[in-house]
Design brief:
Number of helices: 2
Oligomer: single chain
Radius of gyration: 31 Å
Distance between the termini: 55 Å
Helix content: over 70%
Order of helices and strands: HH
Number of strands: 0
Strand content: under 5%
Structural class: mainly alpha
Number of domains: 1
Amino acid sequence: MPEATNDIADSFESLLESAADYGKTSYDLVKLKAIEKVSDVASSLIPNTIVFLFFMSFLLFINLGLAYYLSEIFMNVFYGFLVIAAFYLVLGLIVHVFMHDWIKRKISDYIIQKSF
């Protein structure tokens, strides 16, 4: 009878070790999946950020050139920059009023898509 008890104890001990190994493996798997998702999101955001910065630099210099061109037309530097600023104010208001929810939804969908 003591032999049967030892077999049960050994089986129970083996079962506990297997459960602990399973828990560790499951934890490692979840951790690796999380790392994969974070790296996927970061790897797509970094190139997009670089392209965005180049595009913004392009826009900056185009706007400076346009402002100086309008300054020549209006014969006053202030008016050229004021016209460009007013244009962006109107454009920003239009985007805020009419496209705010659409842009928010698109960004949210993109982040969710990259996460899953």
